[in-house]
Structure formats: structure tokens, C-alpha cells
Amino acid sequence: MLSATVEHIPKGFTGTPLVSVIIPNYEGEKCLPACLESLAKQTFRDFEVLIVDNGSKDAGTPGALALVRRLAPGQPFPLRYFDLGKNYGFATAVNRGIERSRGCFIALLNNDTECDPGWLLALADAMEAHPETGFLASKLLLASSRGHYDCTGHCLTTAGVGEVHNRFKPVDKNEKGRPVFGACAAASMYRREALEAVGLLDESYFMYYEDLDLDMRLRMAGYSCRYVPEAIVYHSLGAAARGLAGALKTFLVSRNMESFFFTYFPGPFRLRHFINHIGLVILQTLEYSLRGAGGPYIRGKLAFLRDFRKTRDRRREILKRFGNGNKLSMHFAGPWFFRYLSAIAAQLKYKNACRGKACLAPTSNKQREKNK
Length: 372
Fold this sequence. Notes:
By secondary structure, the protein is α/β, with parallel strands linked by helices. Helices cover 41% and strands 20% of the residues. Strands 1, 2, 3, 4, 5, 6, 7, 8, 11, 12 and 13 form an eleven-stranded mixed sheet that branches. The chain has a two-stranded antiparallel ribbon with strand order 9-10. The longest helix has 24 residues. The relative contact order is 0.13.
């Protein structure tokens, strides 16, 4: 049985917290202190934090365990640290944390994030104000340029894959809360009963697409998702996965995209939109090849084909439990090709805007302030 290596309960804290914040960690010693510091500044206080470590080595540093032991005693919230001993992946770390959590609401948070002081309060208020909502998406902004979005929720495309809303686009200061298809697990909140109804993250994904997989099951079970623009989190995009080799990231994205497509989209949809999906695969093959990552991308597709029976069995399980998901077609966010080009254009425009400002890789809080 997995037990806490570090456990801290602040003086005066009693009872069961309303919110449990789960932070999966792997080689994250450099970014974890800022994440914990931002949680300590939350105006909402009724929460606990569970850090689940995937066997971090943190070469050349004291290590995650030593860091948490040093930081835990000063935290104003209950904190528990679990070490899995090896890297089982994002999904497994999150699941082990949820299984040991106590809150009515489960918040997932990347270790490479910093939360606005009102983050948890905004999410808790939204849960209370919208009892029909099963889960919530935060307003994720790029830590390197806080005037640009990282993600405002998930959507589906007509190529049968998931997509993040608004990445690299300038922030709309007049935006309102609204329904969205799903939430990015870098900063999200779920009702415990919703997770108990549909199950936790699918650990076979390891990482990437595991949150979209959960989105699908929650939506197929009738739970809605809402975007909460007041719940602001700054995300150092990709920092949480820096311990993984680039080839492995590409492999997982490639393989998991196919698993997602063939698990959740019904036969009629696949027949109708398969040409869209193939078109996307061709474009991505070219894109990754230009980056020098064509080999891992193709190996991901081959790995999916080798394990296709597992995907088929998973598909049958989903059909039996939730139905075929035909109603989800109403959530498609427009023609996939135009969205693909739009995403590339937004990234290029962002990079061009940042040129000369050093906002692609800030090295200090002062630099971040300059980039606002």
C-alpha cells in the first residue's frame, strides 16, 4: 500500500477539506516551489495538497523529497507527498492521488504552474453556482507571456481528435464564463461523484490525451463542463514533461491520438470523417519530420496498430457502459483543416510578437512582469 513519505497538517486545521489539489511530479524540483508558493497565497483556505512523485531523480539537485520535506512545515494547508518509486506516467500519478484524497472537489494542477490567489475560490464558487456542472476548466495563460492564452478548455475537431482552445492567442479581457467541451488537466476541477461515476484517468495513455479521454466519458455520462475565466493559472508550457525525452513525447502523442479516435468515435463517424483524420495524420507526419521527429511519430502509429485489440476491447467497454457517443458530434469546433492552420498561424504570430522581448523563456519574476 502506498503511504505518505511526508505528511504535514498545519496547526488548527481540522475536519475534511472541501477541495483536494493533486499535483503529479516528475523531475520538477525547479518549478515545484513556485507552484506551492502560489497555493499558499490562495484566498480560499479549505483545501489539501497531495504531491505524487513518479520516482524523480532530479540529477544534480537535492531531489523532490528533500525539497518537500524542507517546504512542507511552512505551508498553511495540509500537504502529503507520495513517491511511486518509478515513472508510471501522469495518469497513474493523478489516480493514486485521487484515491488518497478526501475532498468533495478534486483539482488537478501541473507542477509547472503558478496560480492566481483567487484560483481555487473562483472554481469552488463556480461549482456552487452551477450544480449541473460536473467539471471546470481554468483560464490557463502562458507563464512566459501572460497576455496570451495557453488553454481555455478542450474541443473536438472533425478529424476526430481533441484540441485546446485559444493557445497562443491574445487574452480577451471582456470574456465571460461559458460551457466548453472539456478541461485541460494542467488546471481543472471535478466533482468527486462525477469521477466515481465514470472512473479515473486511463493509465494506458501514460500521458497526453488522458484528460481528453476523461472529458469524453464525463460528457457521454451526461456531465457538462464550464470555463471559468476568473480561475487564472500561469503555465510554463511543457516544463512538467522536461524529464521525458522529446522522442517519447512525440511517440505518445502519435499513439494516443489514434487510441482516442478509434475508442470514442462511432463507426458512422469514422467512415464519414476518416479522410479528415488521414489528412491530419499526413500533415502531422510532415510537420514532425521537419522537426526531425518523424521516426518517433511513425513508431507511435505502429505501436497503436500492434495494440489495436486493446483499443477494440476498450471501445466495446465504452459502448456497453456509455453508448456510442453520437450526440457528441454537436461539439465539433469547425472544419479541422482551418483550425489546424489557425493554430499554426496563432503560434507564429505569438513568436513574432515575442521576438526581442525574451518572452519565450523567462528566467525571473522580473522578466515575467515585463512580459505582461
